[in-house]
Amino acid sequence: MSATPAQGLRACVQGIGLLGPGLPDWPTGAALLRGETAYQAARTEFPPALGLPAAERRRATAAVKLALATGGEALAMAGRGAADLRTVFAASSGDGPNCHALCEALASQDRLISPTRFHNSVHNAASGYWGIATGSMAASAVLCAPHDGSFAAGLLEALVQLRTSGEDVLLLAYDTEYPEPLRSARPIADGFAVALLLSPRGTAGALASIAVDPAAAFTDAPAHTLEHAGLEALRRSIPTARSLGLLQRLARAQAGRLVLEQQPGRHLAIELEPC
Fold it and tell me: Treating both helix axes as pointing N-terminal to C-terminal, what angle do 229-237 and 244-251 enclose, rounded to 10 degrees?
């Protein structure tokens, strides 16, 4: 039997953070996704890791900077603090440049690894830095789904956490590129991150609600694409950029069904509705 909306997973989007190639923030990205301005491809500019003490700020990697920047933007948009906020972090590969540096060291004559390189290599490094920057002691989940499905998997995890806890949840999804030769094996075009502040309750500033029917969450239907060639190329070139279809619907206040890549032949179907 299909789940009713009350039995399913539902959350209102209260805040968004965005950072990627030619997308320096959510207001700029929203205007582009609505077709109000032209998309100009450009390299992602990584901002300083604000909120961290000086020593940690110097050690912050590209992934950490992406997470802190987009998470901070989503919270500022919603006027929400972070100290008691549950988080879900999702990344397909972790921190590419740091992984490359570790591989270089292991392939050299001197195989000593710096402590900073080592602690930045773990998949939950961004979550740890987030806790330091915000003072948050709330629960944090960190996950990676097969290949390009981490954004959809992170969104589903955030919706489940929101349903079981009844508390706001911040989803932070990000990817960083690999230098060569790893880039040839796993080509990721650039750094990209998105943050969604999800709440069980809508407010006057909520953009829309995201709903998932557990009985019909997965489908073999193809994922939705973007009509703009440049933005579609970006969507396909970075795993976390698979979120652009959802972001376009939110920017346009467009309701309806949307399919997001999760696994080959098994995609996530969501419904967008007014809050």
Answer: 140
- Sorted by where each begins, the domain ranges of the chain are 10-205
Give the distance from CA 177 to its chain's centroid: 15
Fold observed for domain 10-205? Peroxisomal Thiolase; Chain A, domain 1 (3.40.47)
Let me know: does 66 contact 176? Beta carbons within 8 Å: yes
N-to-C CA span, the chain? 25
The per-residue pLDDT for range 206-228, each reduced to its tens digit, is 999 999 999 999 999 999 999 99
Q: Which residues contact 187 (CB under 8 A, 6 or more apart)?
A: 178, 237
Look at the alpha carbons of 65, 68, 72, 74 in this order and tell me if their dihedral is positive or negative.
Answer: positive
Name the CA radius of gyration of the chain, rounded.
18
Structure confidence at residue 3 as a pLDDT band (50, 70, 90): very low
pTM, two decimals, is 0.94
267 touches 152 (CB < 8 A): yes
Angle at 217 between CA 215 and CA 222, to 5 degrees: 135
CB 144 within 8 A of CB 150: yes
CA atoms within 13 A on the CB side of 173: 26
Instruction: Look at residues 221, 196, 220, 218 and name the one whose alpha carbon lies nearest to residue 209.
Output: 196
Identify the burial level of 58 via C-beta atoms within 10 angstroms of its C-beta, where 0-12 means exposed, 13-18 middle and 19 or more buried: exposed
Q: Look at the chain and count its residues.
A: 275
> Position of tokens 């346009």?
252
> Rounded to whole angstroms, how far apart are CA atoms 254 and 266?
24
